[in-house]
């Protein structure tokens, strides 16, 4: 996917994302710094670093889109500063340690693209003591929401469209993390509970073993109003650099991440004062990405479990 121009056009056009990273780079990179861009993609963050005064920028990109990074560096007259390396960050060699590592490794709720571990491995190998990481820290969040797109989809499948029974697809749908991309965003009014933190990733300190391990949390979601929820929303907030943040949750400015939702089997009715238990677990998948499972438990009820890996294991078998 990341070898396709459309993906990089979409990310560059995301002004919220791209401007936040530009501001973070400008605030962290000092004249003469050596910068490593992990998963450089189009190379736009490397160009920002060069313009911020970096003496050298190593733009490491595994896919063939590395050619575009070279072309953009040349077009912006920083080709002598930005050295594009076409290869995997875990395999390449650099001629020196770096002052700053920048990487846009963020999925819809942070770690779910599976890029965190290679970034942390690069940190341990190439970052000077006291060097800076962009982003600095990333927090995963969840809340109960009503997702109208999901509701319409499930209703359509259950109404026997075209005279067909499609219940089997409903079961697959409610066990799949739904990434909306740019076409759909949840408003603050779609939230049905208070948001709660799942986990925080400190990019400066997290050990690589922890970055490679599953992330999981169980929390209580307080409800303050009557309403109906049909999913857990999952999102991240990030401190890219001191004083420079980025958040992609319900009610935040729209981004290319869109909204990430974890469906429930059927809508649940909520009442003020209710506290709903929720559990989320994300584990590395092979060769790339992650598998996520989730569950909720209404007061006095058993857990309703969902697991996207089990659905795909069934298909693969």
Provide a short characterization of the protein structure:
With 317 residues, the protein is α/β, with parallel strands linked by helices. Helices cover 26% and strands 34% of the residues.
Chart the SSEs and their pairings:
Layout: H1 5-13, H2 15-28, E1 34-38, H3 44-51, E2 56-61, H4 66-75, E3 82-86, E4 98-102, H5 116-126, E5 127-134, E6 137-145, H6 148-158, H7 167-173, E7 178-179, E8 196-202, H8 208-212, E9 215-222, E10 227-241, E11 244-247, E12 260-270, E13 275-284, E14 290-297, E15 304-307, H9 308-316
Parallel strand pairs: 1-2, 1-4, 2-3, 4-5
Antiparallel strand pairs: 6-8, 6-10, 7-12, 9-13, 10-11, 10-12, 13-14, 14-15
Helix pairs in contact: 2-3
Task: Give an overview in words.
The protein is α/β, with parallel strands linked by helices and 317 residues long. It folds into two domains: 5-104, Rossmann fold, CATH 3.40.50; 138-316, Hnrnp arginine n-methyltransferase1, CATH 2.70.160. It is 26% helix and 34% strand. The chain contains nine helices and 15 strands. The strands form three sheets. Strands 6, 7, 8, 10, 11 and 12 form a six-stranded antiparallel beta sheet that branches. Strands 3-2-1-4-5 form a five-stranded parallel beta sheet, sandwiched between helices. β10 (227-241) and β11 (244-247) form a beta hairpin. α2 (15-28) packs parallel to α3.
């Amino acid at each position: 996917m990341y070898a396709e121009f459309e993906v990089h056009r979409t990310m560059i056009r995301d002004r919220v994302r791209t401007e936040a990273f530009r501001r973070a780079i400008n605030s962290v990179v000092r004249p003469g710094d050596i910068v490593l861009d992990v998963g450089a993609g189009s190379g736009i963050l490397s160009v920002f670093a060069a313009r911020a005064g970096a003496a050298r920028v190593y733009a490491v990109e595994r896919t063939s889109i590395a050619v575009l990074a070279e072309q953009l560096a040349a077009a912006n007259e920083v080709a002598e500063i930005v050295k594009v390396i076409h290869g995997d960050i875990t395999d390449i060699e650099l001629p020196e340690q770096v002052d700053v590592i920048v990487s846009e490794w963020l999925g819809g709720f942070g770690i779910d693209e599976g890029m965190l571990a290679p970034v942390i491995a690069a940190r341990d190998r190439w970052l000077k003591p006291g060097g800076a990481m962009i982003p600095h820290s990333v927090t995963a969040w969840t809340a109960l929401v009503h997702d109208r797109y999901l509701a319409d989809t499930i209703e359509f499948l259950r109404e026997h469209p075209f005279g067909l029974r499609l219940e089997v697809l409903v079961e697959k749908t409610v066990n799949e993390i739904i990434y909306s991309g740019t076409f759909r965003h949840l408003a603050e009014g779609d939230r049905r509970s208070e948001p709660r933190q799942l986990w925080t990733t400190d990019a400066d300190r997290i050990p690589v073993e922890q970055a490679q391990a599953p992330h999981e949390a169980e929390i209580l979601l307080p409800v303050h109003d009557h309403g109906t929820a049909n999913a857990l929303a999952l999102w991240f907030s990030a401190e890219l650099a001191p004083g420079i943040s980025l958040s992609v949750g319900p009610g935040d400015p729209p981004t290319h991440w869109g909204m990430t939702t974890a469906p429930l089997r059927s809508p649940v009715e909520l009442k003020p004062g209710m506290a709903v238990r929720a559990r989320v677990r994300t584990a590395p998948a092979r060769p790339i990405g992650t598998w996520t499972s989730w569950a909720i438990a209404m007061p006095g009820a058993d857990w309703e479990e969902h697991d996207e890996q089990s659905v795909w294991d069934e298909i693969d078998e």
